[in-house]
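re: ur msg from earlier - yeah i can do the zinc ion complex, just paste it... oh wait u already did. ok heres what im feeding in:
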Amino acid sequence: MSSSSSSRSVDRPSVGRNDSGRGIPKKCYCGAPPILRNSMGREYPGRRYYTREMVEDGGVHIGKWWDEAMMQEATMLRLELEDETERMRRSKMEKMREKIQTHKEEIEILFELHAQHRML
Ligand SMILES: [Zn+2]
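and the outut:
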């Protein structure tokens, strides 16, 4: 009697060929979008994962836990935000420096005028 235990009983997604990128898996090199599935295995029942198995070539193109992908995505976003904040901070500092320079020049002119006025 043949057992059906080999049917979809995924504990962890198989490593996909398309998993080099971080975060949420993008469209596969073959053009197929990743599919979100629930694990049916005993080890992680209900844990979600991205997958893309191609029947044509019998390979797993994408295989990645959803929560791990989300954590990576969040980290990437945080780093991007920190980067952007730093850029904005620097540009703000630069503008302030320019303003201070302008004020300095104006004050110097004022001092000069004042000095000239006193000499008269
Ligand atoms: Zn693919």
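cool cool. The chain has one domain: 1-87. ping me if u need the other ligands too
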